From TrEMBL:
Its main location: membrane. It comes from Paenibacillus monticola. PANTHER family: PERMEASE RV2963-RELATED. This is Permease. GO terms for cellular component: plasma membrane.
Amino acid sequence: MQWLSNLVKRLVEQIFGLKLQERLGGSIHFFIYDVVKIFILLSVLIFLISYVQSFFPPERTRKILGRFNGITANILGALLGTITPFCSCSSIPLFIGFTSAGLPIGVTFSFLISSPLVDLASVILLASIFNWKIAIAYVIVGLILAVIGGTIISKAKLEKYVEPFVYSNKLIDTDQEALTTRDRVNISKDQVLEIIKKVWLYILIGVGIGAAIHNWIPENIISAGLGQDKWYSVLLATVVGVPMYADIFGTLPIAEALVLKGVGIGTALSFMMAVTALSLPSMIMLKKVVKTKLLVVFIGIVTIGILIIGYAFNAFGYLIM
């Protein structure tokens, strides 16, 4: 979106009378450009994804997934998560519906891991910030984590650690065949508005933090704590990310600013994944539907997966940068 960057540059220089080489001018350009870019891409992609989803209501999706078992079902569950533009908190009600409808618990956890972590809208944004190689690699490792996590939980036979009330909830299906094109368009527009309302504040905060990191915090300070040469950088980024709550769209600008300051791509992605997949509010909500042992297993699997992915990207990220 070079046209947008050039347009914002003219706005900053001609309207505000600032230079991009200056801290304030650079910060304003970073903020306006990233906010507008994210909202444009987010709106278009969520509309398209929601339109496609209108043909696959939860009950129909459950029936499709129910035809498969084993790792194939886990792969399909993870892939389903990539086309659901939800944060982890929003994914949990659908997780409850799938579990109560009889889907294996491992499949539903594959969905729960991939849904906030790897959705199509965030992949497009990731490619626009870095490049397509990084975006595709991120999708692949995210799906692998979701499949492995769901498979481990399935093999461990942890169904008894789901709260009993979950199995009494049923998916409510509607007659999707009766929907007209206008109905689907209206549903898609409503979905765009609903998600924008949920994430707009996190986007503004995330871009604001990214602009501050990019233009105001000296590179040597960031490198001292999160530099690629620091063995603990991935672990620190993951731990720092867990207590936070933000949508992936709000963490992407922070990851962008960190990488521009010399932080390893794996460290930045670990922070982003921890915030979106293991945020404290999400874990509190998940604790309402699963027992402590299952929650600990889930957190352990995802944390170990994030650390492995982070260190792997730091070690081999230069191949795709």
